[in-house]
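USER: I would love a firmer grasp of how sequence relates to backbone shape in proteins. This is the protein in question:
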Amino acid sequence: MTDAHACEYVVDLTNHSNRLRLESAVPGRPMKVVVRDPAHPDGPAIHGTGLLSADGRSFAIDIPTPSGLHHQACDWAKLSAELNTYSEFD
C-alpha cells in the first residue's frame, strides 16, 4: 500500500478500481475513493467521497468515521505522481 496522503487516512492505490477512478478524476465531479486507516492498514477499506478542486491543485475527501464525517485535503500533484508509479497491468 502507498502512503499517498497529507493527512490521517491513506488513499489506497493498491486498489485497481480506485486507481481507475482517480485517473479519470474531473474537477467538480464527486467520486468514490477507497482509503485506509494508517493505524489499521490491514483493516477494512473505507469508502469516502473525493472531489478534485476546480484548479486541479487539491483533492478533498469526506470519510465516514464512527465519530462523524472526517474531511481531509490532499495535494493532487503528489497523489497524481504516486498514481503514475503504478502499472495499469498489475
